[in-house]
Design brief:
2 helices; mainly alpha
């Protein structure tokens, strides 16, 4: 779940840097989908009774100084 949570944050953080409104909206929708993947996977894991470690707090880092990955 952490991978999807971090991906959502990275995508949405990048969208903040995009000037073109249509492109920004498309990137924001992709970030929304990453969050949805996290929800779906969480439900699947819970349905199978698989224990997960608590998720860390997701922090936004400035990406103007370089990529997050």
């Amino acid at each position: 779940m952490q991978t999807e949570g971090r991906a959502r944050l990275r995508v949405l953080s990048y969208a903040d840097l995009v000037d073109d409104p249509l492109l920004r909206r498309a990137i924001e929708l992709d970030g929304f989908e990453e969050g949805r993947h996290k929800e779906v996977l969480s439900n699947l894991v819970q349905a199978y009774g698989i224990p997960l470690a608590p998720e860390p707090e997701y922090l936004v880092r400035a990406i103007r100084n370089g990529p997050l990955w």
